[in-house]
Design a protein that fits this description.
With 194 residues, this protein is mainly β. The chain is built from 1 helix and 8 strands. A hairpin with a 3-residue loop joins strand 1 and strand 2.
Length: 194
């Protein structure tokens, strides 16, 4: 009897999940948690960055959302450099170093969702401004502005998996007035409609 009850409950949950349409509507608040990670590797330098964050914002129409969100980034730079040469073999002598930094930041965004009636999958497109470090004033770090494109999959009535691609143009300039590199980040998250 217990096995039958458990099987029936699991089947009801699965059927309910499969039939649950996307339910975002004007006036809903969305709370999202996301994470990103990237790493570069080279012979002399390795850079790794992990970011966790959140987003919150109201839907001002069924399709349009504005919001803000905090972020926490942890970055590690490690590498080696030539500090001298062995006089017997003329081979380089290396020293290694590693630095870890933690920064708090924020983002402001505007998203347009391509919501269809009764749809479980919601593609979206938007724009955002991102500042990764509150410790630096705007005069030193203007942040980056960019575009985002993503897809939400509502596996329950008010809960969705979120995958996005984010491209950001660095708004700062180097000391020699050269443009700093842009960023391409992939994020994965979980969204809840409140």
């Amino acid at each position: 009897m217990r096995k039958t009850t458990v099987v029936c409950i699991v089947l009801l949950l699965l059927v309910g999940t499969c039939l649950a349409p996307a339910q975002q509507r004007r006036g809903d608040f969305e709370l999202q948690f996301y994470g990103m990670y990237f790493r570069t590797m080279g012979t002399d330098l390795t850079f790794a960055n992990g970011t966790i964050g959140g987003k919150i914002g109201p839907y001002i129409t069924d399709h349009l959302q504005i919001g803000i969100g905090p972020s926490l980034s942890i970055s590690t730079i490690s590498g080696r450099e030539v500090t001298g040469y062995d006089p017997r073999t003329f081979s380089p002598i290396y020293s290694t170093s590693s630095t870890t930094t933690t920064t708090f930041g924020t983002s402001v965004f505007l998203i347009y969702s391509f919501l269809t009636s009764g749809g479980k999958v919601v593609p979206y497109f938007g724009a955002q401004w991102f500042k990764s470090d509150f410790n630096k004033p705007i005069s030193e770090d203007k942040g980056s502005a960019g575009l985002t494109a993503g897809l939400k999959y509502f596996f329950a009535r008010k809960t969705a998996l979120d995958f996005s691609v984010n491209y950001g143009w660095n708004l700062n300039t180097a000391e020699n007035n050269e443009t700093l590199p842009s960023t391409l980040m992939f994020a994965f998250g979980l969204s809840f409609l409140i």
